[in-house]
Design a protein that fits this description.
Length: about 700
Amino acid sequence: MECPDLHSLILEELSEILAASGVRSGSDGQLDPEAERILAQCPALPTSTQAGGVVVTRRHENAILALANLLSRAPDRGILDRVLSYLDALPSYSYKFAPLGSGSLPIEHWFVERLLTRLLACAAQAPHLANEIMDRVWTHLDRLVDVLQGSDLEFAVTFGLPAFLGAMDALERTRFRFRACDVPHVDALATRLLATATVDNVRAAVGAAAAAAAPARRTVWLYQQSGVGLSANHVLAQFLVVVRAVLESRAALRLVASGDLDPELVAAKDPRGLWDLISLIDSPHEGLQRSGGSSDERQQAYARVLAFSLQAYADARSLVLASPLSADGAARAMASTGLRIMCRSVYAAALASLLLGQLDARLLDSVFEHIGSSHAQSLAPLTVVCFRVLATAAAFFPRSRDAIATAISRFLTDPPVALAAELPQAGGVSEAEQMLVAPAAAALVACLRVAGAGRARAISAIHTLFNALAVHRIATPAGAHTLRVARNVVLALAQLAQLHCDAEVTELVVSMICAPRFAAAPQLRELAVQCAADVAPIAARPVFSDIVSSVLKRIAFGSGADDAVNTSTSDALAALAWKIGSQQDLVEAFFCAVMRAFVDASIDAPAPPRLRKQLVTPLSVYLPVLHALVQTDTFAMDREATAEQIALWRGFWFQMVARGYLLDKSYVAVYGRIYSDLAAHAPILVHPSSVNYLETELECSSVLLRESSDA
């Protein structure tokens, strides 16, 4: 985006003031005198004999944009006619100035983007003007494609490409709801852009610009400075964003018409967030029914857009496989652009299928091929899009659910060897696993959400996943493929429980995640602990207590200690404390369990008299969890503590004093803040009902009795 100059700021402010004052053109089309002041600074409209002879300066562009801003704020027929006249004249002007700043995009890109953005804002605000505005916008884009196909290669680079890309940015970001009549225009543009003549001409124009003098070479350089490789593939990638925006807008309106989505929710949501809206639908109607006004011609346009998207995907896939992302320089840039095309084309094809009301077999085969290939990890963004497409397909096309569920289960339980080797085999949930396995599980849940049979299907799928481990012997050391499968299963089970939100499903998942086979494998302990803690917040109270007890048992000190497991368990429990902070009964039960574990561990494996930072001790493991619990909003400070809680607090402080943790400066320096927060939340250490507590309570203290027996 260009930095505005003083002239631009003055005109923008003037247009804002005029819009607020309600300026209107007269019945004869004459503009208000104040609006005429802006119009007077606009360039003259070129005649047929002046084509290319009228030079546009920055001040001219500022004036046109100010007029468009006035139109977007206060839609008016007279002003609209002027702005549309300038839109039509853009290819006939000459642009003889450089943008401000060496790293900016070409001025033609910036100018066309802002002009169309304001026209689209007017169309959204004034529906009675929308048809005329959109017809002229699509006509303008068609003329820009003419420029890209023309013989003037320099003009194609200096104006055609920047103007087209600027228009794509404006169409992508608009909140205007595209109409059904916009789909044929998208279809026509798609056909022209994918034509060999267009691709070859753009490639020739960019190649010639690299060896030409300014301004063509400068245009290419400016895009390179902004991280964009000017090419036919980049143009296609940007156009696919517009295809997606148009199809999303149509699909959202169809979902409202079918009753699957709340119209107010759709109106408040950015049209590009349709995936998030679809995920909210529990039992959608099968497919998207054709609306009453949906003609056969429009359905054919959807079919052609689907074919165009699949063709773009196939071409980009060949490009990416030939020039992998691991390459350097130009090859890497080509592969990156190809990956964007693949992601956007699969998405567009899915939306077109949705609007056609039938799932295209070619689309499904392409998605299945990718998630089953060795490129699922290296092309992770595409894999994520594929799983979201499968989730949508499963939601709207019931007959595809079994095939989709089978493909996802195969991805989880029999991943490609390359995928197994690239992902980590130990530790907690990695970023790559979160990116790939989580959306796979979400798509699997979409297959299982069938009205009246969701729980039974979910339980069956869970057993299928768990039983897949029967063919893999988890040993120490275990093979990479075996560990990959085991980690996938644990992650998928946790995701299924969190997304399905059913008490019986959650209990079954917890019993499997906490199974001995995962606890026995050192490479899976941290992952199992983290996943169990992730599931705990949605579990019923008894199951929650079982999870906390199982996780606490993973903590060990002394000769059999695993410092990595202890540390990750502490982190997982502290995170769990924050997640359940609003549920007082769970917080209190959790606190008692952790306090009891700390007292027992301090007796069996006390920390050394002096702090050793590298040593994992009961203090370093349990204190952060206790601290997180007392800082929750519902930790009871005003309620009378029970006898059990008082006994636990007393045992806790006994250990803290007897071991010298409160006096040693090294411990105080590290844990002093936690000490003070725990002390501030601690109850009186003698229950009000106690009698002769100095004798009775101390004589019967379990802590003292255990200390004496140890001595």
